[in-house]
């Protein structure tokens, strides 16, 4: 990831949060995170800006990917920050997600094996980092699921102007994702608030390079922090839900997307086309806008964020994550078996299945996102698979089952388990926050293709899976509580 390039010596005073090289944390020292920085875009001169930029970035990124620790192909980490021109310079250079992916793949192919051979202990370090990462993902997937369910319940009220409740969760998750990607303070090893005042061409260039070096160090270190991965991949990814977005698209088509206590007469089927378009346009535009607004909030709050205690004391937080991640997951399982009240199971089952969906999405992203630089296949497969599973669970939940004595959805317990799969597993397996990050940073024609194919295929799955039941046998109201 890189910041927007800056030009000229007459730029205004820059105030930022400068961080020193990581060195306090033992694991960070062993991984040489201070040498893994991606140099932000630099322009040099107007005669040859592009070559200067690419040479500078390639040199820095060759150092970044020397120490692969198993977090490659995660677009939450690879994508450039949402606002690549935070200083609002006139001339600038932007890097796309395709460029970031190609650079990463090139260095992994040529140097990854050599690095492992030269440093056998890197395998143990990678395994330790993976343990911390999985622990953070488990914990934040549970918290993200709780946040999504809470937001949906808060926004489900009579005469609500927006009947798609997951829209608010997708907005909040995308907003927080943009904030985390743009932030330069919370995860810094050491911070000091300084005003840089360029004085002339030479000094201005030196000051600008120093500022970029600090930013690059921060970006490189942040990308390898399990806590940061947990917040972006885990919390934001679980807070948002692509499968619920697709379900709302279908409900808009079938005239079932109504608010609480709504009594709306049946409309002409032709209006369903407008309903589907409205849901699709609103979700995409709101989520993309939230990503940018979150980045702007991080820029605006930078002076204040510099005063907040740092969040990268990995020596303590990572060990705590193992305890909390496994402990919360085990606690959810025990609550599902022995709940204080039967009503709890509708939420507790979602918490049980949430880490499974989040970890599966994480694995798919690592394995498949690097296959095509212009099409994030891992996120695409996670979203579609989760959408298909949600459609199947929705069908089973809304029809009488012969194996359960003709009870709808298998009775109360069966309905609660299916709700847990829909809200927990499918909600955390699919994501809108990562999806909009990818669309935001892909080249325009690739972004339109990726976004259009994702929505078209996802909506088609819902029409085939749920529509075939809805328009033939019919669906019944599920009974999940006494």
TrEMBL record:
It is found in: Cell membrane. GO terms for molecular function: fluoride transmembrane transporter activity. Residues 1-12 have a biased composition (Polar residues). The keyword Cell membrane applies. It catalyses: fluoride(in) = fluoride(out). It is a multi-pass membrane protein. Belongs to the fluoride channel Fluc/FEX (TC 1.A.43) family. Fluoride channel required for the rapid expulsion of cytoplasmic fluoride. PANTHER family: FLUORIDE EXPORT PROTEIN 1-RELATED. This is CrcB-like protein-domain-containing protein. It comes from Dendryphion nanum.
